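Notes, Module 5: Reading structure tokens.

Key idea: the token line is not a picture. It is a compressed description, and you learn to read it the same way you learned to read a sequence, by spotting repeated patterns. We will look at two proteins. The first is printed below with its tokens.
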Amino acid sequence: MNITQKEKLDIIIKEIDDLINEKIKLSSQSNEYRREYIKFMNYKTKKQYEKLVFNKEKCAELEKEIKNISKNLTEKFKELHRQKIINNIVKE
């Protein structure tokens, strides 16, 4: 099955949209953990300290994922640009 240039563009745009939505979701989660982390910065008990460490680690983990998604988004936008150029050449 051969797909058309328009279908290729639609697929890339959908992938970009999905990545943006995932990045927004992870950013929101990261912000929640960051708020919790800040809340426990003046910990007084071992349990509060454990929550502090957990939230800090979770935030760092999510930030890594967000950075990876940003890298993937950059690649997808480059791919979209290449496909648009190909599409313009094919039209001529």
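Here is the second protein, with the sequence above and the tokens below, as before.
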Amino acid sequence: MNTDTFFKTLIDNTLEQYKKIPKDLERNYNNYGSLTVKQAQWIETALTRNKALRELEIPDEIQTEMDIALGTSDVVLNDKQEKTLIDRDELNQIILEEIANAITRVMERISIT
């Protein structure tokens, strides 16, 4: 199933008073290629509460975006962990360089006087 079919089915099986929500979801997904936490939660809720949608197959692209938005994706967790380690390593390098510069300045002052 592709994303267009998924959203069409989602819209067709939503009560008339709420059809604006999945239409907005489809438009935003097509424009930005991602989902917010609230959007992913809405889709998840619709798929579990609406009997007509319970068997609806979620396209891989949308499932991936839902996992990322809801924080259930291993890839995202690993990315965050790796980014934290990179940031920590960069910070350590900067600190060591600043300490080395400070020691060099102190040694220069001592040798001048």
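Summary for the second protein:
- The two ends are 78 Å apart (CA to CA).
- The CA atoms of residues 94 and 100 lie 10 Å apart.
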